[in-house]
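Deliverable D4.2, example record:
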Amino acid sequence: MSLSEDFRLPVACPSCGSHLMRVSQVKNPDDEVHCASCHRFICLWHEAQTVLKKGPCSESEALIEKAVNRVNR
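Output generated by the structure prediction step:
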């Protein structure tokens, strides 16, 4: 059983370009978000929530995000 959850951010990892991120299942505001591919620290969970609330910058990004985040929940 995994203690973390994957989700997709509209902002890509600066190291590898992946949009798939990982956060603990608890999701405390100060939990760290890491790239699911290269494990680089990206931001804190409360910062990721702000980005997710802003939404993607294009309709195609929105469709991809909706599909990926729905599957991983």
